[in-house]
Fold:
Amino acid sequence: MKKSMKQNTISRSLCILSKVCLVLPLAIFFFASCGSKKKVENKTIMVSIEPLRYVTEYLTRGNFKVETITPREASPETYAPTPQQIEAIAECTAFVRVGSLGFENTQIRKVTDNSPHLYIINAAANTKQLPMCDHDHGDQHHGGEDPHIWMSPQNMKIIALNIYKQLCLLDAQNADVYKSRLLAFSKEMNVLDSLTQQRLDSIKNEAFLINHPALGHYACHYNLLQISMEHDGKEPSPRQLQKLLERCKEHGVKTIFAQEQHSDKGVKRVAEELGLEVHYINPLSYDWKEEMERITQILLQK
Structure:
């Protein structure tokens, strides 16, 4: 009798244990799924610069919240994201990057490498690459490739396509909506490109001076000549400044640009020598299309 009761007790214990072993993995799976789902449902996309927010918001139009890391007054090549921004990137759903800007390869890379849930969107994939140089004698300034890929409507079409592909993975149920917006954006870029080509056709090969070489892609695409004030990312020495002045005279420079986020000291001196006006532009503006049109209009002013 005692032996039978002992056997029954053992049997019940084994039964309970087996149920626990069955339920525990399911519970772990359930809570783990809830945790990962929370990350997937985070409807925030972070971008490194404002032109990327421009195109991302065009495609998403309220489906995702889009936030920019680089402030208006800062250069992404020297800006250091705040701890709060680093934390926000780690918690968002996707991060859109150019891929070759300063902080993208330092602070942000550490975050993305340790955030397996985070979608990394390389906006520059399959875009036309240019060396970071003047486009007459090929003088290298920073070495490597020119990161300002967004300063070309045709490149912006490719950037939009790269973002669209990831949006379809993030939000498959709205893939058709994103596709229609991509087509509309591409059409706008084609119209802008065609009109710009027509307007600048009369000044092919014309040279302009700029304090920071942000218009390399623009110049290359529209057959213009960019002369940069910077040398290896630094203000020119007195001797280099004199050579720049001679080059500007040689190429008949009539337009001088200054990017807002960089020093205008050098271009002011050259402008004074040449009797020209300095035009301040913002290639990092959220109003990307308007800024492109404004740059074209300035070049046509004589």
